Amino acid sequence: MIQAEISNELFKRAQNSIPGGVNSPVRAFRAVGGNPRFMVSANGPYLFDEDGNRFLDLINSWGPMILGHASEVVQEAVQKAIPYSLSFGAPTRKEVEIAELIVSMVPSIEKVRMVNSGTEATMSAIRVARGYTGRDKIIKFEGCYHGHGDSFLISAGSGAITLGVPDSPGVTKGTANDTLTAPYNNLDAVKMLADANKGQVAAIIIEPVAGNMGLVTPRQGFLQGLRNLCDQEGIVLIFDEVMTGFRLAPGGAQELYGVTPDMSTLGKIIGGGMPVGAYGGRKEIMDFVAPAGPVYQAGTLSGNPIAMSAGMAMLTYLKEHPETYTQLDSITASMVAGMQQNMQQLGLNYTINRVGSMFSIFFTQEQVTGFDAAKTSDTALFGRYFNSMLQRGIYLAPSQYEALFVSTAITEDLVEQYVQANLEALQEAHQV
Ligand code: PMP
């Protein structure tokens, strides 16, 4: 057994002063049993906790550490920026440079506004879409998570489903009524909703590759079908690429699948680990944002110089090193191939979904193309598997309904270790 005394003690203390002992619900280990580990540092592929344990990290801060932890590229940029002060609340050259870089990389973005989290990005994007169209309703998809804005906490994935609160108290009926939900990958259902609410739908927001019910990929033609529907109905199509942006390709899932939305929301990787989000899209729509237009959205710390320096370093690296994506794809493919071999050896047949450097194992034999299928997973088995992996020094997301993220710091020899741990954990998890 690995040590956990100090983490356990800190968790006990934390619960007295922090709700549930954590600053974001997805960090709690409620769904898998046990207490969360308290981290001290991280380097390359590894996390180190208070008890001196080392873990191979497959969360990577839920996505942003695409180059591994404490990457020199990002650390140096941050260190260089610090002596110039941490915040001005006034415009900087770096904000212009990062905006230009994002515009050059993301197909749908002609203008972009920086914010401080993915939640802010999605909340702002739908406000702009509503202001632009003069309509109130939005369509989202079951199992997709777009942050904790009121409008999105209806049939939400990620921590909301993990904790069994997909429809949160505190969201007013009025707000809930303006959010329509459709099953992921079901174009007919979306068409019916748009038809039944003709002229009232401002936006369709979707994770073009869903990462918040475990990893679910879009069926062929699904994203293009949404694009066509939005064109016909004057609806703003928003791709929430908070997870997929700059991860699946330099231009995100929209580049990978060749479908360009009207607006996109971004986060995580743009900050290289600093708290950053962004939303952008067609000029005509983005010019509705204050002070260019009437839709208000602001932020004291938005475009923070340290965060912008980290982001510039990260995005510049990714733009200049497209081979990063082939490397990530091939490493992740080997991990998944190893897991599939393990299952074959053990006579198991669970579903693994993968796109590039994101993947999930679902403890179900059903094909997982949406939330209903994801929910057929054996979550108790997942909990045992998670804890067996943790005991073997592998840090997975503590929920069946999350994707895993691979970084470039995960090399072939670490893949071998991971695959061996997976074999043993699969065996152990089935011994009940
Ligand atoms: N959208 C998506 C697709 C996400 O995965 C997340 C968070 N994982 C968010 C929005 C919210 O981002 P944040 O946690 O930075 O507010």
Plain-language structure description:
The chain is 39% helix and 14% strand. The strands form three sheets. Strands 4-10-9-8-7-5-6 form a seven-stranded mixed beta sheet, with helices on both faces. A four-stranded mixed beta sheet has the order 1-2-3-13. The chain contains 15 helices and 14 strands. The longest helix is centred in the C-terminal third of the chain and has 24 residues, at 323-346. The chain folds into two domains: 5-70 and 322-430, Aspartate Aminotransferase, domain 1 (Alpha-Beta Complex); 72-320, Aspartate Aminotransferase, domain 2. The model has no long low-confidence stretch (mean pLDDT 96). With 432 residues, it is α/β, with parallel strands linked by helices. The protein starts with a helix and ends with a helix. Helix 12 (323-346) runs parallel beside helix 15 (412-430). Helix 9 links the parallel strand 8 and strand 9 (263-267). It is globular and about 60 Å long. It has helices spanning 5-17, 72-81, 93-105, 118-133, 159-162, 173-177, 187-196, 222-233, 252-257, 283-286, 305-320, 323-346, 371-374, 379-391, 412-430, and strands at 39-43, 46-49, 54-57, 111-115, 137-141, 179-182, 201-206, 236-240, 263-267, 277-281, 351-355, 358-362, 394-395, 404-405. The structure holds 4'-deoxy-4'-aminopyridoxal-5'-phosphate (PMP). 4'-deoxy-4'-aminopyridoxal-5'-phosphate is lined by residues 62, 117-119, 122, 145-147, 207, 211-212, 240, 242-243, 267, 277.
